[in-house]
Amino acid sequence: MNILPCGDRAVLIECDTLHEAQTWFAALREHAEVVLGARTVLVRGDLRASRELIDRTDPSASPVDTGHVVEISVTYDGADLAEVADLTGLTADGVVEAHTGTAWTVAFGGFAPGFAYLVGGDPRLHVPRRSSPRTRVPAGSVGLAGEFSGVYPRESPGGWQLIGRTTLRMWDVDREPPALLVAGTTVRFVAR
Amino acid sequence: MTFIVERAGIGSSLQDRGRPGSGHLGVGPSGAFDRDALRQVNALLGNAPGDAAVETYGDLTLLAGAPHVIAVTGGVGTVTIDGRSVPHGRAVPIAAGQRLAIGLATTGMRVYLGVSGGFAARAELGSLSSDTLSGLGPPPLAVGQSVMTGAGRAIPALDDIPPLIRTGGVDVDVVLGPRDDWFTDESVRRLLDTAWTLSAASDRIGLRLDGPALERSVVVELPSEPVVRGGIQVTPAGQPVVFGPDHPVTGGYPVIAVVVDSHTDRLAQVRPGDSVRLHRRT
């Protein structure tokens, strides 16, 4: 674990694995303003106080799984489904089977309100981001990038490989919490 | 207590102090880009420091639906009430039926229009800032819209806030990292030695800096990591982009340095074509 500078109001804890970052996030979230990344945790606040907090924290003491399960119904007709099949050596049906066949876990949010980076899926689905991002990805699009899957909460630009779409609302400001998927939630995709 | 929008202007939105502390929900800070100008306009009007004002590039006309006291801070341009010039940085009355016109800023970029009592709208996550990336908060001002205001306050007797006189660029301090070691030493030097030019393709999400390309020494893909206002992300083409208030919560490109928080407000007032110089603070 390294502590990296991030301006004069935050530090970044750099970990070796997502799981290690998740344990730091779980251990610190009651005590500081923290944001989780794929290998990193941002800790906001006075730099010296943050370093002291990190020094006296045992990251292994807090569970990262909330025990919450969400099912997401998906129509698998995404614009990049054929390309993902090519990249993975699977058929289009094989991509769908792999995507629905294992449970995913919400690792962290970011990119947009309600956007969740899901991990723990079938490792055969690891594909690079598109070389050229789309300027417009419709809300509800289900995508893949690297080890992650995710659902676009609203129309936005985006570089993920799109394999399908859902009608579920990922973000609703009148709901508490507004994000359907929060860190630690288990997600199952279901084909329809 | 209202204004009717007759010309919506360019980039006109309500901004308060934003939504700090919601990064774990994927929600960025948003809020006024020039927080000093927001504080100033509210101080002139007897408002709370974080009351909402209109942030605009100008070309905005509002018809007063009731008597109000207004003030304008930040970027400097022509401001009139029924054609009569309004001084910068001073609380002035406007009567019902009068028109307030804010021209494009000619010094600085972003103009802040405050009203005694503050502007009012439906808050989302505790703020009525329009976040242009996430779509949170009320949409940008539109022609024909009524903008509500709060109950007027006692106006303090204050000197005018002096207008911006700076032209031709800004200097800001940066802290190197967290990913300066992903770039060649030469590129880190280039970051600090270059008079960067602000690109016109800049907005509240990010300010793009034109200049020599910065080269990576580590070329693997960066796992997405949290970013902050003032973070300087470098695109695959080597172009630095400084994150503004509507930045995403996490980013996928390495951040070579971060502008110190108190200097990020200066960047709100840089004009396309003006220079930005970065100085290392250790």
UniProtKB/TrEMBL annotation, chain A:
Transmembrane segments: none annotated. InterPro entries: CT_C_D, Cyclophilin-like_dom_sf, PxpB. Residues 1-181 form the Carboxyltransferase domain. Keywords: ATP-binding, Hydrolase, Nucleotide-binding. One of its GO terms (molecular function) is ATP binding. Pfam families: CT_C_D. SMART domains: AHS1 (SM00796). PANTHER family: 5-OXOPROLINASE SUBUNIT B (PTHR34698:SF2). This is Allophanate hydrolase subunit 1.
UniProtKB/TrEMBL annotation, chain B:
One of its GO terms (molecular function) is ATP binding. InterPro entries: CT_A_B (IPR003778), Cyclophilin-like_dom_sf (IPR029000), PxpC (IPR052708). It comes from Aeromicrobium fastidiosum. This is Biotin-dependent carboxyltransferase family protein. Residues 24-282 form the Carboxyltransferase domain. It comes from the Bacteria. Keywords: ATP-binding, Hydrolase, Nucleotide-binding.
